[in-house]
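Comment thread on ticket #2218

A.B. wrote:
> Attaching the input chain for the structure job we discussed in standup.
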Amino acid sequence: MKRTLFVAAAFICFFDLAETTAQNTQNNKNMVQLNLTQEWDKTFPQSDKVSHSKVAFANRYGITLAADMYVPKGISGKLPAIAVCGPFGAVKEQAAGLYAQTMAERGFLTIAFDPSFTGESAGEPRYVVSPDINTEDFSAAVDFLATNDMVEAGQIGIIGICGWGGLAINAAAADPRIKVTIASTMYDMCRVNANGYFDADDNAEAHNRLRKALAAQRTEDYRNGFPKPGGGVPEEMPADAPQFMKDYHAYYKTPRGYHKRSLNSNQGRNATGAIPFINFTLMNRADEIENAVLIIHGEKAHSRYFSEDAFKKLKGNNKDLLIIPGAVHTDLYDRTDIIPFDKMEAFFKENLK
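C.D. wrote:
> Ran it. Output below, let me know if you need it in another format.
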């Protein structure tokens, strides 16, 4: 092992790749009709090197997921493919789409998808989360890609950003069709929800206090008939707020990264969102992942310890950890001068064989 510094799938339609429609619409029994935005409403400019289309597919829970698909222009034959999701509380029009479009420019067919209950994807109630269902979302994306005529079915990888980095590792441990996994600026959402940052609340008293607060909120939500929003990134950031919260504000609450469907940019997930995470472990089988894994994190990121501890669990000589000098957590959302796309491209090409 080296260490380096620094869905049954279902496809609804391609809007500008119509030749594949007939094959894929045969698998739409579990689909619901989605109202997909046709305008370019991303937080990053559209590339003229790739073709973009809106697609949809269902996970095995019958939830229809919305995605943007990016296909490199001028390349024939079956392509290696990558599914991208994250950050946690974001939508595909933000960092995931930037990653997907950039990797498509480098020769991969890619999709950036909204997870269940979020963005343009289906699922009720809205804005809930589940480590099980959200891990399944990655495998549903693999279902979709593996049955697409343009994709080389044995050459599929995933990228998880922020909280979806931990979910990506969990997906890789569950689904060997995922040949390569990249976790960028990852969070372990189970660990941070249960224990707080830096495991400051990793004790029975704090755990039980959290459970009681969440249980009381469940009762209140049921009485009111609707869930209380948890609140996204605050509109105003106090001067004494931790620097990483100021970094989140600089991304989610400014034109740099704001999106109207983004949970973090607006009302956030439901206030009881921690419930499914606190008794669940994402890294339980990480040591059994046989396929390649690359973990990327910023040197100055408050969340760096999640990546370093996850890396310690991985086994084999096809695992790597890349620490980006001087980078903070949100730099790896959209700083194309910092995100190591060259390394990512090389890692995928080396291991998608």
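A.B. wrote:
> Thanks. Noting for the ticket: The longest strand covers residues 151-161.
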